[in-house]
Design goal:
269 residues; alpha/beta; seven-stranded mixed β-sheet; 10 helices; 7 strands; globular
């Protein structure tokens, strides 16, 4: 299947960026603009997303993780740092758990995968999923979800919303909806919280303090910071940065801070 990706800049290291649910490669634009001056930056459109192939299949975190690994192999990338946002973070961790040598470092931005879901919570989550207007694939809900990913100044999401709506319009609705549902079920059913101690790579974890999506506020009544601290402590070599006045789309809403943390982290590792 054909994968679309952005490939810019050069340097001793390659940063491989993985977007989140219903996202696309350009959600890393504000980061690549700066980081490509120091490193090679590759941002992937995951299968079923962006401009990549959409041959109808079952999507899962494992499937996406293998796609990322195959890209690393195919492009013969050396000294890779995986950078994942939200679901992309869960995919990055899964890729490393499956192929320990595929990356030297890991950067997780508002990552999914740290939450525990009981059987009851999974059922509840799946039921709300089928009913939630939030995930019906209409344009107003896509707009709403994207805007809710920011803590303030929603107007900065405008460009992204336009792109994502244009991408959505090119999909058969039923297939697009199925892809979204598969991804959400993957996030719930393929968590990584039990295996975090197996990740030995130096890891930078970044969250916006006002993240509205992680943890899932309907089910888990803990703060983003608490969840992030617990995960950081389970990993061998992880550092945590919490950005105040910032929502789920940290790398866009607070691009300057995120870029600064990434550059510092890479310089020191």
């Amino acid at each position: 299947s054909s994968i679309t990706y952005i490939d810019e800049g050069s340097g001793p290291k390659t940063l491989l960026f993985i977007h989140g649910l219903a996202g696309y490669a350009l959600s890393w634009k504000k980061n690549i603009d700066v980081l490509r001056q120091h490193y090679r930056c590759i941002a992937i459109d995951l299968p079923g997303n962006g401009l990549s192939d959409r041959t109808n299949r079952t999507y899962s975190i494992q499937f996406f993780a293998e796609t990322v690994y195959e890209l690393i192999e195919k492009l013969q990338l050396q000294d890779v740092c995986l950078v994942g946002h939200s679901m992309g973070g869960q995919i990055a961790m899964t890729a490393i758990l499956n192929h320990a040598n595929c990356a030297e470092e890991l950067i997780l931005c508002a990552s999914a995968g740290f939450e525990k879901f009981s059987v009851f919570e999974k059922t509840m989550y799946q039921t709300t999923l089928h009913m939630a207007s939030m995930f019906t694939s209409d344009e107003s809900s896509l707009r709403q979800v994207t805007e809710n990913s920011f803590y303030q100044n929603q107007t900065q999401a405008e460009e992204m919303i336009k792109d994502l709506i244009a991408i959505m319009r090119t999909h058969p609705l039923k297939e697009y909806r199925k892809m979204i549902e598969d991804c959400i079920l993957g996030m719930v059913n393929e968590p990584v919280h039990e295996q975090l101690h197996h990740i030995l790579q130096p890891t930078l974890i970044i969250y916006g303090e006002q993240d509205a999506f992680i943890p899932n506020k309907l089910i888990h009544h803990i703060s983003t910071q608490q969840l992030a601290e617990e995960a950081t402590n389970k990993m061998r070599a992880a550092t945590l940065e919490i950005i105040p006045y910032c929502g789920h789309f940290a790398q866009w809403e607070k691009a300057e801070e995120v870029n600064k943390y990434i550059l510092e982290f890479l310089k020191n590792n």
